[in-house]
Amino acid sequence: MVKEESPQITRRTTRSSALAKCSNNVVEETKANSQQQLTLDDLVIGEEGESFSFADLVSSFPGRESQIKELVHLLGPQNSPMLPIFIYGGSSTGKTSIVLQTFRHLKRPFVYLSCLTCYNPRILFESILNQLFLHRKNAENGYSSAKRCEKPSDFVNFLREALVSIIGNPQGQKSGLSNKRSGKANGNMIYLVFDNLERVKGWDKGSTVLPLLFNLYDTLKMPEVGLIFISNTSPDTYDSNMGYVEPNPLYLPDYTDDDLGQILMRNQANKKLYTSFLSVVLRPFSRITRRVDELSSAFSLLFRKYCEPITDLGVVPNEEMKRKLFSQFQPHIAPALNEIFKVSTQPSTEVEARERKPKGSTRKSGGYEVVDQLDFHMSTSAKYLLISAFLASRNPATLDASLFDSTGGSNNRKRKRKVSEKSLEQKETAEQELLMKGPGTFPMERLLAIFQCITSVAEDPLDDEEQAQDGLGIQDGHCGLMSDVLLQLTSLCGANFIVKGGSCPLEGSTRYRSTVSEDMALQVARSIKFPLSKYLYRR
Q: Which terminus has fewer CB within 10 Å in the chain: N or C?
């Protein structure tokens, strides 16, 4: 009975496609588990019998025809060696999706690595080797990798071994090994795609991993291997003194208003009605952000509000109907512009609450009135950034790890040591000196770190479901409040809420200082329901 049940377990757990027949799956998985031979066909994406032409590829990405043609030109004809390619551009400009769909069109094998999910060298190295060795983690192998690799030298040796095993047997299907994918691999070239390359800079050993990746072209010396790097930052932000072959750059600019209109128009049932909606909201919103995921998330809620007076959603609006829809929808535009960076985007609820609640509403707290609403206009992202600057100026930098840890800040359950009287006196003296000095200065790195920590507390996980839009943007996870932080910082500096405190000669970077009082910081925190006192250090 054991022999009869084992192929069923294998078929159920390692099945690669729901469209394949059960008999073919048994043959494929049995031979894959025995690791008889490796073929390039296992690294080709595509459905069975699929015909994905160049016209289909271009039509999938409005406004990107010239960039797609340039990418195909840099990849070259079949089996032609190529120099490394460096693709860069802003967030949600289609970099990753264009690369993946181009390989789908060309039917060429590739290995994809995201430095966002592979967050340290070991995971990155082993992920590459697992794909090249066609290894899948499961219960049978104890969820272990094909090769345990931590050192860069071991990674290069294992990588060369895996590439030789695949490229050395390009015609492995002649031995009876059937194809797992629909189309056979075109040519003997194999490509390594490294996405979110800028993330490597923040790794502990990022200074050694980046030169290793850029020097793979010279280290491997294998013309059958192509390297593609995808980054949100330009090549100038990387050290050019590493001695590597300079890759061919390919820049993807931000989408224009016409491109955004074509992208957002996709999969809309009533295109005439949605066109009238975009004519109202697209231009003001595109001045704030041009990210497809953020705009689609905001527009999905606003479009429902826009269509509330309409009973038949299939109607073609005329000029009179457009004017009526605009007149009732206009009060919701300004609040939605302010909430576009908010984690939970609910502009209609905010408008209704403000219509029912009078301006300047107050509540009693400790015998005096506390105003919940601010006297000035400020977006949600600017409020979070202002609170981050206030905390960075008031809290000692040495306490950031304990105040912003994942266990709840100062309420963690670490065992405390007994403190002597002398150390208590030194601590009180230091606190008095810190109080006399006033708000301290902080670098931008610390400001952004605190900003990301406090915004993650209020992050709504339901918003992530609305961010996948037909592969037109990078699905890089967190795309909430971190969008235009530098722009918001410039605005706060211009309003003198944050001032530049000079530059540190040792660090060589500009330092900032918060000028807002504690009462104002608490008022801003109450407006977004943020527990400021939980993160504020007090003696």
A: N
Task: Find tokens 């070259």 and name the residue.
Answer: 76
Q: Where are the beta strands (DSSP E) in 122-242?
A: 190-195, 225-231
Residue in this structure with the two tokens 């490229």, named with its chain if needed: 167
Based on its alpha-carbon atoms, the radius of gyration of the chain, rounded to whole angstroms, reads: 28
Alpha helices by DSSP H, listed for 60-139, are 65-75, 95-106, 121-132
What was the pLDDT predicted at 149? 86
Nearest to 433 by CA among 389, 402, 476, 396: 396
Q: What's the mean per-residue pLDDT of the chain?
A: 75
For the residues of 227-277, what is the DSSP string, one character each? EEEEESS-GGGS-STT-PPPPEEEEEPPPPHHHHHHHHHTT-S-HHHHHHH
| 217 contact partners, CB below 8 Å, separation of at least 6 | 83, 84, 227, 244, 245
Mean pLDDT of 64-84: 92
Q: What is the pLDDT of residue 176?
A: 35
Q: How many CB atoms lie within 10 A of CB 238?
A: 20
CB of 146 closer than 8 Å to CB of 133: yes
Tell me whether strands 190-195 and 225-231 are parallel, antiparallel or unpaired. parallel
Closest Cα to residue 10, out of 24, 23, 25? Answer: 25
Q: What is the dihedral of CA 259, 260, 265, 271, to 10 degrees?
A: -80
Say if residue 68's pLDDT is above 90: yes
The conformation of residue 390, written as its DSSP 8-state character, comes to H
Q: Tokens 């009533």: give the residue.
A: 270
Is 476 within 8 Å of 196 (Cβ atoms)? yes
C-alpha to C-alpha distance for 251 and 232, rounded to whole angstroms: 10
> Which residue shows structure tokens 């660090």?
507
Work out the percent of the chain whose per-residue pLDDT is above 90. 21
**Ramachandran angles phi, psi of 500, nearest 5°:** -80, 130
Q: How many other CB atoms are found less than 10 A from the CB of residue 18?
A: 6
Residue with tokens 């460096």: 86
Collapsing DSSP to helix, strand or coil, 16 comes out as coil
